[in-house]
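HUMAN: Ready with one sample?

ASSISTANT:
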Amino acid sequence: MKQLTARKLTLAGITAALYVVLSYVSGEFAFGGAGIVQCRLSEALTVLPFFFPETVWGLFVGCILTNILSPMGAADLVLGSLATLIAGLATARVGKKWMAPIPPVLSNGIIIGAMIAWFEADGFNRAFWPAFALNGALVAAGEISTCCILGGLLLAVLPRIPYFRKQIQTERRPDSCGEGPVTTEDVTIAGEDEAITE
């Protein structure tokens, strides 16, 4: 991550706050388990690191604060937050925009699915693997619904908003964007946008 600025820290903080609020708005679906599809509206935010790498840490902190009240206790606090951190770091490094939702789906499906299965099967035994297959699929399904649908909307809309578009162009690394490196035309447009706002 490049040098931290007040804007980056603010964006990370806002992301953390939004993650917590959207998680609790999701109600009982926020923690899944017992055959329930885990579906946190906040997981839509996990695509943000594709455009704004600094939001990785906001997502991580937001997930920690959310999982403090998890019915699975310390395990979810550690593993759930770790899954979000891994997903965020990976999303910040994917090469194309359509790939941005994939890391959260895989990370949560595997890690959270395994954690829920461990509780249901009371450890690693013969019952663990069927429980893992079921819960991994349920968690992944919830992630697909939020990351691919709602997150996909964010990926489509944010670059169209002049303020965010300008920030994306200045912050995005050429090797981590889905539309290729920033071009001379992009820089010109960004300069015009900045001049208009001034």
